[in-house]
Design brief:
Layout lengths: L1 E7 L16 E2 L2 E2 H9 L5 E7 L3 H7 L5 E4 L6 H8 L8 E6 L7 H9 L5 E8 L8 E4 L5 E5 L6 H4 L3 E10 H7 L17 H7 L3 E5 L13 H21 L2 E3 L5 E9 L3 E3 L3 E9 L4 E2 L4 E7 L4 E2 L4 E7 L4 E2 L3 E3 L3 E3 L4 E4 L1 E8 L4 E4 L2 E7 L4 E2 L4 E3 L9 E3 L4 E2 L4 E3 L2 E3 L4 E2 L4 E2 L8 E2 L18
Parallel strand pairs: 1-4, 1-6, 4-5, 7-11, 12-14, 13-15, 14-16, 15-17, 16-18, 17-19, 18-20, 19-21, 19-22, 20-23, 21-24, 22-24, 23-25, 24-26, 25-27, 26-29, 27-30, 28-31, 29-32, 30-33, 31-34, 33-35
Antiparallel strand pairs: 2-3, 6-10, 7-10, 8-9
This protein binds uridine-diphosphate-N-acetylglucosamine and magnesium ion.
Magnesium ion binds next to loops.
Length: about 450
Amino acid sequence: MIDIVILAAGKGTRMKSALPKVLHKLAGRSLLQHVIDTSSQLPEAAITVVTGHGSEQVRESIANPVNWAEQTEQLGTAHAVEQALPSLADDSVALILYGDVPLLELQTLEKMVGLVAEKSMTLLTVELADATGYGRIVRDAEGHVSAIVEHKDASDAQREICEINTGVMALNSDDLKRWLPQIGNDNAQGEFYLTDLIEIARNDGYQVEPLQPATEQEVQGINDRVQLAELECHYQHCQAEVAMRNGATLADPARFDVRGELTVGNDVFIDVNCVFEGKVQLGNNVTIGPNCILTNATIADGAEIKANTVIEDTHVGINAIIGPFARLRPGTVMADNTKVGNFVETKKAVVGSGSKINHLSYVGDAVLGADVNVGAGTITCNYDSANKSLTEIEDGAFIGSNTALVAPVKVGPGATVGAGSVITNEVPGEQLAVARGRQRNIEGWKRPVKK
Ligand code: UD1
Ligand code: MG
């Protein structure tokens, strides 16, 4: 089994924030959540998160079943790992990760764990053009990793080394438990350095297997908001590339944001400034206009979502046309060939095939049959200040403009409602309902004049 230890006790001073650093978001998820989501995919893995600054807030933010360890004083990375030891098994492989290094790939973690053997541990290193501030990897004459020297403790010659310690390591838990107590804090920062493990392991006759990540960004830690923005940009660039490789043309890959999981069919077109949150599925030949926000939505083949449309927890059927400026709220199900036009809001609305709600309407808690036409300015009055009620409009009904449908109410198949009606009773099928004051024309009437 694998015991994952995630260090997340640091304050993150350079974020200049009341929010603990690991709770800042990248692509809509906290940095720590990224680490948990990736590492929890390892088989037979248990996770222990070490918190300190903002412990309570950090714990409340995570729903996954993890063990929590507390580091009340931040005395160094070795001291932090020590706090997690009580939840570690004896026969597991321990994998040390960091709550502020969000983009590590599962494959890298698998390799790290796979290289751990009797008498060997794994260390993730990377070569940087500018290694300032990082722990340097010292290799012996044969090229084997022999130690890590922190920047502040390094000699001028050691500071020339551009291979650095990412901090990520994997080793047998029993070795970790044996070695940690041997670490002291006699160094430039007076901290207990986890990096001292390397020398201790070597002295114990162990081999330290170095491994490199596929990209530098994988091991990029976040210390300030500039780095956060850079990594977000990199992440979105990767998401854009995936979408394009899977069949979507992006008007501008730099103005495209995925904050969840987006799947696309072939010949999808996505215009600029769209945001995809949660799970979003776009079928073949789907077109998304500029400035749309789609959250947990499925958009079927050939559907067109026009500019400035906001869609949440909704299904849009084949060849449907939605927007511009439409808002489809949770529970909306638009069947095939439906149409929703500008300034229309829907909520818990099931709309049958071929039906149209083209202008300025609110349709909530409603079930519409097929080929219904909802005129401009129609409102389903679904709320009586205490309860929500259902409006049912059956196949082929025609609702005149500016109609108020006071729910619960039903309009039968093929029925017609005259414009401006307030409908409080059932309209039987095929009949015309007119529910408004009748027009009177007053002959000889004079407008008031100013006194
Ligand atoms: C550490 C490594 C360094 C490596 C660098 C990579 C050590 C001694 N040094 O340095 O070799 O190049 O990371 O970024 O390990 N943390 C705690 N409790 C503590 C101290 C730290 O939870 O008492 C957490 C921090 O929140 C942070 C991480 O551990 O997420 C790294 O700590 P930090 O102080 O940033 O270490 P560095 O000096 O960057
Ligand atoms: Mg750091």
